[in-house]
Design a protein that fits this description.
By secondary structure, the protein is mainly α. It is about 70% helix and about 0% strand. The two termini are about 20 Å apart.
């Protein structure tokens, strides 16, 4: 499971959302956009990522570092960024 999907599932759980439609409405995005993120066809926009961080009361850095691994498949980039990852 990708971190993107984990974040989306956490929002659904925290706000007792029972459908993808409700989740899309909560995030003010289209269902097709949400579907593309779920299927890893596109990556989540940073604006929405920070909105989710606020909804879940997460540190921005936690969300950024988690999503970097979803957005970039270059292992050298991930390793370099992980060295500075907050605990």
């Amino acid at each position: 499971m990708t971190y993107t999907n984990e974040l989306l599932d956490m929002v659904k759980a925290k706000y007792s959302l029972t459908s993808e439609y409700q989740l899309a409405k909560k995030l003010s995005i289209s269902q097709s956009r949400l579907h593309n993120w779920r299927k890893e066809l596109n990556s989540m926009d940073w604006e929405v990522a920070f909105q989710i961080a606020d909804l879940l009361e997460f540190n921005d850095q936690k969300v950024v570092y988690g999503l970097l691994e979803d957005k970039y498949q270059n292992s050298r980039l991930i390793n370099a960024l992980s060295e500075g990852r907050p605990a």
